Amino acid sequence: MNKTKRIENTFDVVRILIAILLAYLIALIILALISDDPWNVISLFIIGPFNSKKHVGDIFTLMIPLVFTGLCMCFVYAINKFNLAGEGAVNLGGCLAACVAIALRDTAVPGWIAIILCIIVGALAGMLSTAIPAIADQVFHADVCVISLMLNYILLYFTTYILKNVIKDQGASVTASYKLGRKVKLANLIPGTQIHIGLLIALACVVFVAILFYKMPFGYKMRAVGVNPSFARYIGIPVGSTIILSQVIGGAFAGMGGSVQILGMFPRYKWESLTGYGFDGLMIAVLARKNPVLVPLSAFLIAYIRTGASLVATKTQIPPEFVSIIQGIIIVLVAAEMFLSGWKKRLIFSAAKKSLKEKEAKA
Amino acid sequence: MSALRIGSFLYSVLRLSTPLIFAALSAAICEKAGLFNMAAESMMLWGALIGVMVNGWTGSVWLGFLGGCCAGVVTGLLIALATVKGKADLMLAQIAINLASSGGTIFMLYVVTGDKSTSAMTIKSQSLPKIALPFLKNVPVIGRMLNNQNLLTYGAILAAILLMIFIKRSRTGVHIRAVGENPNAAESVGISVSKTYFLTWAISGLLGGIGGVFMSMGYTSAFTKNMVAGRGYIGLCASSMVRGNPIGAMLCAMVFGVSDAIANQLQLTNAPVDLVMMLPYAVTIIVLIIISVIKIRTHVRKIKNKASQVKDQPGILPAGLSLSLDSLYGIASGPCSAAAAGGSSV
User: Fold this and answer.
1) CA of B38: which chain A residue's CA is closest?
2) Domain count along chain B
3) Which candidate among A181, A315, B125, B224 keeps its CA 20 to 30 Å from the CA of B52?
4) Class for domain A59-317, per CATH?
5) Do residues B336 and B237 both lie within one domain?
6) How far is B87 from chain A (nearest CA, A)?
7) Which ipTM did the prediction report?
8) Rounded-to-integer distance, Cα B148 and Cα B136, Å
9) How open is the CA angle B245-B248-B253, to the nearest 5 degrees?
10) Crossing angle between the packed helical segments A277-287 and A239-265, to the nearest 10 degrees
11) In this structure, are B109 and B228 located in the same domain?
């Protein structure tokens, strides 16, 4: 029995790796077919992200928001409720954090307190955004996915309203907020790159979530509800409140992601469309198999592919959007149970046969 | 003067509603089969792009229209392939398809034309014809509203009626509804569930594809990147407000069309456009919640009635009352028409 479980686990990892390789291969073939100088483009795509300090830094900076939304979607995916409000939570978190930063800019509040306040406000904003669909789902039994998709647009328009009417800097040439001020800018971690303290915050969050998932009663309850809600209810876990609470906690990370991204990367707030980090987060959670420990790894992978694509886009005319094809293929292959399932069955079958033979030999 | 303004306002409502209606119908047929269609977004994107491309190559609007339809169908079938044959999770597969399509259409546009954002400069494509209805010309408001609309605007209304008849009356429609109610029961009486799913996705893709064609060959006359901009999701909401009733879905889509038109009008004034744009989504959420509360209430009442009817017969009562809230939600097949009225009265 144990053996079967082990085969299943290793097989899952191998399957994900094969899916990634396959998708990557398809992308390379497409790149080779459409460019005039295939070798250069392909080497730029594969090695480019590692060929200078700045590019490696780009991977890590891109990774930061992805880790946050990946954590958010780990919670959502672990309880099998497709609450996609994490997407809008990034915008709301970023926007409200920007508001706080602007309000505190000319006061005597020291920088680190302002930063902490901004991030807390971002987290609260995220919690609020995921709480609405979660409560609508659990209390009123409305579809959580539809509500969260609608909520994303509400949050988007709400934040653009704030941007255009409350914090807009009339002097700026484009639609942008007032300057957030130097004191809330997250400090640079490694000179020569754009990596900021946000990376450390993200990794601290990963550690916290991992402890919550695997070392605390709440994490156990949550995973039990995700695997089998009826069983969880039977053994006395409050299913409804666990489902709501885990989505709310998840939302906090998405909101934090938005505020950290704004504080770390931009001098002004100017998001006028959904960032897409939320949906990316879902993919990262899928790749990490809902395991928060693996979230940085899969976020790194996605960030690496993205960085390669944007390098290709700057050197040639090929639009960076082609990576979304890779992402789509990876998700479908990882999600498709039938992908390589014949192989898995054969492995389990032969292992079972072998152990049977050993038993017979002993007897 | 004012009648003229109302007329032209309603004209733009219909025009803006058309893609939403197609998206809503695309989601509605899936809803009837018990599926959840988030991918109308990508069906529309591919329909819009391929429609323009085929139109440019062949010079024929109609072949372009056909190409767009095919692109939608293929997208639908891809989802069916991944979920039915590949046993992928429906939500994940659709999120993947949406991701891949939003980038894939841009990429394909680049490969074909060398332009990364629009086909306006590079592909010579026409629009589908507008239909003049001379007999309506002198009717005050209605004439302005209905006359000279794009062919597909009439098509959208016709499609809703046809889909209604198809689902209610045809043999296949009954099969689709049976599978939607309970796939296992349907399988047990000899309906092939996987075939029905494939068919449903194909029809859904066709409707989504036509909606996309309207976007690029009616609403505008070129493909622009991300031109669908969430209309697929709005269609999904419109249909889930009425549990997949096609006519109701069409009316709900028109409610969104009204708010789009109002926002367009307000854009000319100083009003906060973003808040106005927010309204239809907020209304949807509230209506969705109200509908599900009503549904649960009526269902509980039904069970209570049944329970009081069978009071004298012991043994049936516990079975009736042991339904958990989860199953209440699942079973609530609900008052479609009441929900439709609720949705359209907003």
Assistant:
1) A146
2) 2
3) A315
4) mainly alpha
5) no
6) 5
7) 0.82
8) 10
9) 120
10) 120
11) yes
